[in-house]
Amino acid sequence: MSFWTALRIGSSGMSAQRLRMDIISNNIANAETTRTAEGGPYKRQDVIFMPKAQSTFLPEFIRARQAQDIEVISEERGMKVAEVTTDDSEGLKVYDPSHPDADKDGFVTYPNVNMVVEMTNMLSATRSYEANLAVINFAKQMALRAIDIGR
């Protein structure tokens, strides 16, 4: 794997995890939003990832392995966000007839955001971001060592 490939993979992972953290932050910020422009309470969102060039990497790797090609360079390696999905599950219903968004029976439907799940997802996204940063730092250190050896 070349220096540039490692940087592309690490940076694509960092970008994807940054978007994931933004979505999680949005979920947390709207955990009490009972009315949206679409009507009804806020619906939590989630990010689905997929590898770049998902269908071409394995055949390319097998071909390169059979040809005993040491380095397989692909411009499309790394991770990307496939889509941002909306969780349509029902939120918590609380009896509060004085709330402006209460239904005819006095129940208010709150968003389907679970703070424990969101904080766990945030921790996971942070760790993944740090792991991708470590890949970039390692590639940088290896390049600097190669330069030192060449002197």
Explain the overall architecture:
The strands form two sheets. The chain has a two-stranded antiparallel sheet with strand order 1-2. The chain is built from three helices and four strands. Residues 69-75 have low confidence and may be disordered. Helix 1 (3-29) runs antiparallel to helix 3. The longest helix has 36 residues, at 115-150. It has one domain (3-31, 45-86, 113-150). It has helices at residues 3-29, 54-66, 115-150, and strands at 45-51, 79-86, 93-95, 107-109. The chain is elongated and about 80 Å long. The chain has 151 residues and is of the alpha+beta class.
Spatial strand sequence of the major β-sheet: 1-2
The arrangement of helices and strands along the chain is HEHEEEH
Number of strands: 4
Low-confidence stretches: 69-75
Strand content: 5-15%
Tell me the Rg in angstroms: 22 Å
How confident is the prediction overall: mean pLDDT? 85
Classification by helices and strands: alpha+beta
**N-C termini distance:** 23 Å
Number of helices: 3
Taken from the alpha-carbon principal axes, the silhouette is elongated
Q: Estimate the helix proportion, in percent.
A: 40-55%
Mind describing the biggest β-sheet?
2 strands, antiparallel
Count of distinct structural domains: 1
Outline of this structure?
With about 150 residues, the chain is of the alpha+beta class.
